[in-house]
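note to self: dont lose this again. the chain is below, predicted strucutre after it. 345 aa total, dont forget to put it in the shared folder this time
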Amino acid sequence: MNFQNDRYTLRPAAGGDDEGIRRIFESGSFKGGLDIRFLRNPSPLASFGADGEEARILVIDDNREKRTAAVGGAVVRTEYVNGRKEKCAYLTGLKLHPDYQRRISFLPQSYRFLRERLTDCRFFYTTVLDSNRAAVRLFEKKHRNMPEYRYLGHYTTYCFHDGMRLLRLERDETEGFDKLMQCHFSAQSLVPVDYNCRGFGKKHFYAYRENGEIAACCFVGDQRGSKQYEMCSYGGIYQFLRRLPTQYLGYPPFPQPGKIIPCGIVSYLYVKDSDVRMGRRFLRSVAAESGFPMLLWGGFENNPLCRVTEGMKAIRYGSRLYSVDWGDSPREEISGVIGMEAALL
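---
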């Protein structure tokens, strides 16, 4: 699809687009007190594809300068929604190279083009960092040529360590976890059905058992083979805090600017009866056993396990969760406890 006097072309991404997409990711970062760049190396398209059953990624070409101007699309995966297995599309957001900010008028074409490629999906959602004020303003004001973004609530990502072996854990003994998937995780919404999705990275399973039954468990994955968080710079109070020996105070260490953050990603966290004391003891034990200097877990505002991490020493950053309504099919709200995994966002 061509637009703006044929200067730009909107099309599905192909294997040869990796380099152009990589340059876009390397050109931007999450601005704020912690300035972090999110990367998908060595192959952005393979990284997107690992997050679900299929990635439907679009690019915008600048035909005059022969370069990739923007990338966006959706990752399609089967997730539990309202007690059922449903095909869902997680909209990745549209990233523009800074050279093209405010230069391309493409929203109507892009949304129409993407919708045509997601007709087999029933639920659509996306997340936006709190600090991305421009996107929040765009989504929360209705526009004639855009789908409706319906705010569902707040999502917090916790970065923590404070490791100490307080419980005796089993590693990679998953007996009983499939039962938890059927009776616990299936009752939440936006939980991926496939807990072996490649996007979780190289992972290990940790469990604490009482009388042979799982009382607390989670996976911890290393995603650095396909996703990386690069620390760019520090602002505000973090310029001072990063110089302190934070690891001795129970907080994760602050990485040096320009370095990839070596963090383990926690997924499918379960604590029996959402017991806060047990949950904290379990996570501190996992932090000690896993060997990562930092662990990362995300929870939606109505997830009772947020009470576990709220009492821990952690660095937090927030996002806003939206369901996306194209207005062309019967609407069903995403309800219940949201179990969305930070590893796949």
